[in-house]
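Entry under discussion copied across for reference:
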Amino acid sequence: MNYYDVLEIFPQVKKFRNKVIEKIDGRKILDLCTGTGAIALLIAKKFPESQIYGLDISRHMLRKAGKKAGNLANILFIEADAQKIPFESDSLDVIIVSFGLHEMPGEMRSRALAEIARVLKRDGRIVLIDYEKPKNFLARYLLYLFLRIFEPKHALALLDEQLEDTAKTFGISAVEESHSFIRLIYGKKVSA
């Protein structure tokens, strides 16, 4: 088990990943920053008639994802940068980013969100899962400690960013749900 798969042991992460599946519907679905493919694989099994793409910059993570996928025919893993998504404009029905945005510095995160808006169809769905600043002092302290030890320095900056407002600047209408140290942001592309 590696660091990315450790997140799977937290009940809140599993709960949010199941919520993601409830919020999607589409034929072409992209799991951006797929890592070891946890969400992409859940979706591929749940929606065998859909084409699922798992995109990540790490060849190492994609190899692990490919091994986990086994013989699933409706999933394809692609090595690429989230700032240069290799799909045509307005071509995807759903894009999911689970614990990927905090890995990117602010400017990179903005470019990735612009790319998401470019490749997502009008009325296409977007679902983001990432860390949230807990209201409880002890939970906030533990999350900050975790982020300082295991994540890049810029990960803390995401805790103060209002992602639903940032998404609106790219033509994406979004709603946020906060639960302890995780937030779920979902919405759709409202402008081309």
The radius of gyration is 16 Å.
